[in-house]
Amino acid sequence: MEKKNLDWANLGFTYRPIDYRWQTRWHDGAWEEGGLTTDPDITLSEAACVFHYSQSCFEGLKAYTTKDGHIVTFRPDQNAERMQNTCRRLEMPPLPKETFLKALDETVKANAAWVPPFGTGASLYIRPVMIGSGPQIGVAPAHEFLFRLFAMPVGSYFQGGVKPIRIQVAQYDRAAPRGTGHIKAGLNYAMSLYPTMEAHRAGFAENIYLDPSTHTYVEETGGANVLFVDKDNNLIVPKSNSILPSVTRRSLVYVGEHYLGLKVIERQVKFSEVKDMKECALCGTAAVLAPVGMIHSEDGDIYFPSGMDKIGEISGKIRETLLKIQSCEIEAPEGWIRRIL
Ligand code: PLP
Ligand code: COI
């Protein structure tokens, strides 16, 4: 199979319609068979529930080319499960795990020419999405739903690759105390757009949100979880019920503990402690592991000892190890890699 002729090393993180996507609809209490389509557009009723009441959710995962030329995905069962949890909270019909994985396999296979070659630093980003597609005018869940899974080749999420980024403490809350912070609902991102643009206008790459009840503890950023390395080289992982259970973060914790012998401490992290940390990084499928060089807050700016020029030593090691596991250069824990081709 001949790869597409793209500038793989300079893709950025942007939408690009590629050859195939996969779709199924839910109505009368069941999912249709579903299958591949070439049409990137969706036609909906003006009264579709998603337009008015934001009944929508999504996932994000990646496919990689391995050194020996196979195409693999990373822990897709975790995304399938998380999407089911999200659906339950949003009164949407959970998609069976086998259907999610079938959609993934078929889409990646059909678009194999778009999966970036090994060694380019790029990957195929896969975006499963579900919406309340049925017409609904009273505030209630839709009676029809649409699941679609599409993909595109991407490079770095943040400009500059692994150069440390500057972020700011948001002046807004991301999640209500008993709200939807722990699920991947579209509404969590809608409300983050204004703060995100404010951060960008002020020269910051992202917002870091504090807990919505007390504004004392670190939560996460708009699109990634946060990690710290303390002075004793322990990996400090903020714990909260209102952050997304990131697959990347859970994998990095395992990698830190079992591949690198780090001590991992998962606990609530006060923002007042952050100034004493040695390294800070954001982690997620899109972000992979992006080093943070500086955090701006109303109480002053925090510059981490790892600096603004390069990724910190521990962050660099866990990032490299995870990437090597994802592209099968080093052996993955049981069940992490799903070979597609
Ligand atoms: N937190 C938020 C708010 C996100 O949108 C994402 C991206 O999916 C993550 C964290 C990272 O999660 P994962 O590692 O599963 O991609
Ligand atoms: C991902 O990392 O897959 C996400 O969904 C984050 C998104 C904000 C780009």
UniProtKB/TrEMBL annotation:
EC id: 2.6.1.42
A Pfam family recorded for this sequence: Aminotran_4
GO molecular function: branched-chain-amino-acid transaminase activity
Superkingdom: Bacteria
Class of this enzyme: transferase
Catalytic activity reported: L-valine + 2-oxoglutarate = 3-methyl-2-oxobutanoate + L-glutamate; L-leucine + 2-oxoglutarate = 4-methyl-2-oxopentanoate + L-glutamate; L-isoleucine + 2-oxoglutarate = (S)-3-methyl-2-oxopentanoate + L-glutamate
TM annotation in the entry: none
CDD domains for the chain: BCAT_beta_family
Protein name as it appears in the record: branched-chain-amino-acid transaminase
Organism: Mesosutterella multiformis
GO biological process: isoleucine biosynthetic process; L-leucine biosynthetic process; L-valine biosynthetic process
Function: Acts on leucine, isoleucine and valine.
Cofactor requirements of the protein: pyridoxal 5'-phosphate
Pathway annotation: Amino-acid biosynthesis; L-valine biosynthesis; L-valine from pyruvate: step 4/4; Amino-acid biosynthesis; L-isoleucine biosynthesis; L-isoleucine from 2-oxobutanoate: step 4/4; Amino-acid biosynthesis; L-leucine biosynthesis; L-leucine from 3-methyl-2-oxobutanoate: step 4/4
Gene3D superfamilies recorded: 3.30.470.10, D-amino Acid Aminotransferase, subunit A, domain 2
Sorted UniProt keywords: Aminotransferase, Pyridoxal phosphate, Transferase
N6-(pyridoxal phosphate)lysine modification, residue list: 184
Family indicated by similarity: Belongs to the class-IV pyridoxal-phosphate-dependent aminotransferase family.
Presence of keyword Plastid: no
